[in-house]
Amino acid sequence: MASGGGIQIPSRLPLLLAHEGVLLPGSTIRFSVDSPRNMQLVSQRLLKGTSLKSTIIGVIPNTRDPEQDTEDLPTLHTIGTAGIAVQVVGSNWPKPHYTLLITGLCRFRVSGLLKERPFVLAEVTPLCFTVTSEAPDTCAKVVRMLLLSVRNVFFFFSFLARLCVSLQLLGMLDMSVPAVAKFRRLLDSLPREMLPDVVASMIRTSNKEKLQVLDAVSLEERFRRTLPMLTRQIEGLKLLKKSRKMTPGSEKRVCYGGPFPGRQFSLDRDEDSDDDGDDTASLEKKVHGANMPEAALKVSLKELKRLKKMPQSMPEYALTRNYLDLMVELPWSRSTKDCLDIRAARVLLDNDHYAMEKLKRRVLEYLAVRQLKTSLKGPILCFVGPPGVGKTSVGRSIAKTLGREFHRIALGGVCDQSDIRGHRRTYVGSMPGRIINGLKTVGVNNPVFLLDEVDKLGKSLQGDPAAALLEVLDPEQNHSFTDHYLNVAFDLSQVLFIATANTTATIPPALLDRMEVLQVPGYTQEEKVEIAHRHLIPNQLEQHGLTPQQLHIPQESTQDIICRYTREAGVRSLERKIGAICRAVAVKVAEGHRLPETDASTLETSREGHREERLHLKRSTDKAAPPEMPIVIDQMALKDILGPPLFELEVSERLTLPGVALGLAWTPLGGEIMFVEASRMEGEGQLTLTGQLGDVMKESAHLAISWLRANAKTYQLTNMVGAPDPLEGTDIHLHFPAGAVTKDGPSAGVTIVTCLASLFSGRLVRSDIAMTGEITLRGLVLPVGGIKDKVLAAHRAGVKRVILPKRNEKDLDELPANVRAQLDFVTAGNLDEVLNASFDGGFPGAQARPHVSSKL
Ligand SMILES: Nc1ncnc2c1ncn2[C@@H]1O[C@H](COP(=O)(O)OP(=O)(O)OP(=O)(O)O)[C@@H](O)[C@H]1O
């Protein structure tokens, strides 16, 4: 260890790599840190350490820390300055960075690198100078001489500064008169070996010159290098004084040529402050012209007054300035005029969206009420449905019909309430919340705000953003919404909020209560084909610069894409697949533009008799002839572009053994088919359940087994050795495939019973049937939710018959007519009816039992 200004310098120092600014011993510099190794140094060393030693770091000048952590370290400058970090300030804006205030203690030489990651650590040799040790007789003499001249020069310098001030040439030095005196005292009290470093850091010098002073290890050399800089500064001041005398009050800048060409002294800040004056004047004008409410105007004027008194270099200046800029930019009273025509709105909604009749009807009702009654306290609509069913795009259409600005606020994953309400201005890097930011972006106070994915709001230590949304969405309160950053109320009552979600289950009840939920179910296959041909294909063609004359996707191919390449409730995947086709065709078309016509033999005759080229993309060679338009996407082309089909109709293939049944499940992504498999083996009557099941689903399995054991005799179910209790000497394993997906809920009850009945009876469940329903211990079938999505999933999977609880019969009305026509529905009130419908020719014993009916 060595000592620097009374502080022990460790022999191993973490190094801060600084490419801007040179820290000299005795001076204090601010460093901005945002590169990986330097950031790690701050977070792992400075912020974690608790001792004084942990605040001492080495600053290596003239060395850039690589932007990527993986990049190799550049050659380090060999001499640096050990310094103590006296202040660390962190900020996340505009990107994560720290600002360090470091006071230099003493020079060191890097003797060896110990590690490069996560920050640079090096073995260092301190170079703290002492006159007695380094310079015995002669050197000490020179040093004394130099010290004398330096002190004299300084005396002159301070004298000159006083002179300038007294002549009132430099307004900026008004403040520095006591500072000059202080400076004198400081110089007198400083140990002489520190003088050159301190002087070099105070006068106007370039980094290159400072680096030369740092590199001068011997004190004599250091004095020699500092002296010319000091002399130059004085000469500059003299020259300035002379020119002021010649043209009093007119010249503000003096170009100093001579021995240091190119250096420009601008010691006065009159011009800057003039700029500043203009700036604040124009800001004041804007504040008055922004049409703010009285309270906001009062706050703005107060801030403006503070701003005028602040020097620009103060960090708070920028903060106040940004705040005022936001205040004048906000649309306090700027709005667009609604141009609502219900008939036109109906046409526009119909043109933009196929199907979704119920949703469109409700949206039209909503718009009609708004047209009749302009008081704006209408409900807040929340569209709930699987991804890709057009919730966001309906929101956009509503804005279009109203002639309003549209702004989407993505709330997925937001877990900090300041995202909604903003940060208080006392925080470093504080910003307004998304609502105020959105208003600033659209520039009017009556836009349509789409709060996307409200069901995916999170909660964290930083507060609950859903709670902050409560105020935003409450028409009774939102006329005085106060963002923490703004700190004055903004009237949100003109904003039209629409929310979207995939499920209502995760929306906090208080928030859900403020909204009117409109379910947007998935599409049937036919609807998807229509949507693809009316909207998706034309959109994608346009986006890829293609025309219908260049690409044709027949209906059968669209159907193929829907059944075999996508399995979804919405149409987003379908849109992506069409995009992939367009890209592939775009390549062909572009190639065709520049290729000469060559080999006609690659052209094939299509089914319709036209001459068309089939897309053999993988096999295409540069010699291929330009494609004949339009390029028709048939099955082969689909395989070439999209690869082998991702999904096959597997239902009938999987139901070929006893002990397998097909259930229907609901997920936030839409309905799904779900296989249930059972097997039995010798054992002690144990039940094993696999497939990531929730508690409710496990209970359903136990219920099903108990009911079957209780009714084994009636249904002639036996175990493997023919005993009446199916579980005697038998273990049962129930598995729900897609084991990685968590499953829960009671609606698999009937499927488990059917699956077990099939296992114990050895009979096959019908291969074209799917079912859903909760069971009770007495064998009743209770209603479940998500019927529409479940039935659509069954329809997608090619199922022909669906068993539903009797009390869900009313939900069938919501199904599209073609789905209802194509499926055979069995509504069951008890498990006998379920078993009878599930097996070809009924289930033995099921008919004989007296029927119990639900009183629930
Ligand atoms: N009925 C429809 N008619 C025309 N286009 C549709 C229809 N439904 C969906 N689309 C199109 O499907 C795409 C996806 O729609 P959108 O982004 O609105 O889905 P979303 O329901 O908001 O999904 P998410 O919940 O994932 O945000 C859009 O390009 C949209 O235009």
UniProtKB/TrEMBL annotation:
Residues 269-281 have a biased composition (Acidic residues). Keywords: ATP-binding, Hydrolase, Nucleotide-binding, Peroxisome, Protease, Serine protease. The keyword Disulfide bond does not apply. Residues 248-287, 599-623 are annotated as: Disordered. One of its GO terms (cellular component) is peroxisomal matrix. Residues 605-622 have a biased composition (Basic and acidic residues). This is Lon protease homolog 2, peroxisomal. It comes from Oryzias sinensis.
